[in-house]
C-alpha cells in the first residue's frame, strides 16, 4: 500500500463520516462538493472534511482508493457511499437517513424531511 | 466530434439504453472552477438501462464510468449522472 492509501484508510477508519472534497466545509471550491457538504451540515451530521485541492497526491489517491473518478466522495464508517449524484438521490429517497440510523450516526431527521419537502 | 457526441456514442454502444440524453452544461458553469473557454467541460447524462435493475447505485455509476472511459473522464471537469433502470 502506498503512503497515500494508508493515509486515506486511516482517515476513513478514524472518523465515522468523512467527505473528500474540493475546498473545505466552510469554504467549498466546487458546486458539487458544496452541495454534499451543505446536505451534511444542514442535517447536523458531524463529519471530517478533507480538501483534495491541498494535496496533489491525495487528489489522485482518493480516486484510486475507491476506484471512483470524481470528487466529492462520502465515506461512512470506512465504506464509500458515493459522490454528489448518489448522495443527492439517497437524501431525497430517505436512504441516507436509513444509513445514518443503521450506523449510529447522529443526524437531524426533521432537517432531512425539510430537504425532501423543499425538493418534492 | 464533440465530447457530447463521444459520450453519447460510448454509452449507446456499451448498453442498449431505453433512453439516453447527454447535455453539455458547460455554459451554465461559466466563471466557476473548471470552466474552460469553448465549453465541453460540464456534462449531464440521463440514461435508462433495463439491465441495471438489479445493480446498486454505485455499481450502475461504475458501469457508466467504465463505458465512458478514463480518457474522456480525465478530460472533462464534471459529469452529473441520472441513471435509471
TrEMBL record, chain A:
<keyword id="KW-0676">Redox-active center</keyword>
<dbReference type="InterPro" id="IPR033658">
    <property type="entry name" value="GRX_PICOT-like"/>
</dbReference>
<keyword id="KW-0479">Metal-binding</keyword>
<dbReference type="InterPro" id="IPR014434">
    <property type="entry name" value="Monothiol_GRX"/>
</dbReference>
<keyword id="KW-0001">2Fe-2S</keyword>
<protein>
    <recommendedName>
        <fullName>Glutaredoxin</fullName>
    </recommendedName>
</protein>
<dbReference type="InterPro" id="IPR004480">
    <property type="entry name" value="Monothiol_GRX-rel"/>
</dbReference>
<dbReference type="Pfam" id="PF00462">
    <property type="entry name" value="Glutaredoxin"/>
</dbReference>
<feature type="domain" description="Glutaredoxin">
    <location>
        <begin position="17"/>
        <end position="81"/>
    </location>
</feature>
<keyword id="KW-0408">Iron</keyword>
<dbReference type="InterPro" id="IPR036249">
    <property type="entry name" value="Thioredoxin-like_sf"/>
</dbReference>
<dbReference type="InterPro" id="IPR002109">
    <property type="entry name" value="Glutaredoxin"/>
</dbReference>
<comment type="similarity">
    <text>Belongs to the glutaredoxin family. Monothiol subfamily.</text>
</comment>
<keyword id="KW-0411">Iron-sulfur</keyword>
UniProtKB/TrEMBL annotation, chain B:
<protein>
    <submittedName>
        <fullName>BolA family protein</fullName>
    </submittedName>
</protein>
<dbReference type="Pfam" id="PF01722">
    <property type="entry name" value="BolA"/>
</dbReference>
<dbReference type="InterPro" id="IPR002634">
    <property type="entry name" value="BolA"/>
</dbReference>
<comment type="similarity">
    <text>Belongs to the BolA/IbaG family.</text>
</comment>
<dbReference type="InterPro" id="IPR036065">
    <property type="entry name" value="BolA-like_sf"/>
</dbReference>
Amino acid at each position: 500500500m502506498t503512503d497515500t492509501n494508508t493515509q486515506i484508510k486511516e482517515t476513513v477508519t478514524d472518523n465515522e463520516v468523512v467527505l473528500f472534497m474540493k475546498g473545505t466545509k466552510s469554504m467549498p471550491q466546487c458546486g458539487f462538493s458544496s452541495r454534499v457538504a451543505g446536505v451534511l451540515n444542514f442535517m447536523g451530521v458531524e463529519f471530517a472534511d478533507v480538501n483534495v485541492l491541498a494535496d496533489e497526491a491525495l487528489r489522485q489517491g482518493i480516486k484510486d482508493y475507491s476506484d471512483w473518478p470524481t470528487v466529492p466522495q462520502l465515506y461512512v464508517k470506512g465504506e464509500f457511499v458515493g459522490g454528489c449524484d448518489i448522495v443527492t438521490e439517497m437524501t431525497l429517497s430517505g436512504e441516507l437517513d436509513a444509513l445514518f440510523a443503521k450506523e449510529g450516526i447522529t443526524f437531524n431527521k426533521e432537517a432531512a424531511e425539510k430537504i425532501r419537502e423543499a425538493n418534492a | 466530434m464533440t465530447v457530447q457526441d463521444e459520450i453519447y456514442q460510448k454509452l449507446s454502444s456499451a448498453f442498449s439504453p431505453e433512453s439516453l440524453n447527454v447535455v453539455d452544461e458547460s455554459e451554465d458553469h461559466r466563471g466557476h472552477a473548471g470552466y474552460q473557454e469553448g465549453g465541453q467541460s460540464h456534462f449531464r447524462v440521463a440514461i435508462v438501462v433495463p439491465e441495471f435493475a438489479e445493480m446498486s447505485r454505485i455499481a450502475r455509476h461504475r458501469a457508466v464510468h467504465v463505458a465512458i472511459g478514463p480518457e474522456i473522464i480525465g478530460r472533462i471537469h464534471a459529469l452529473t449522472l441520472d441513471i435509471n433502470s
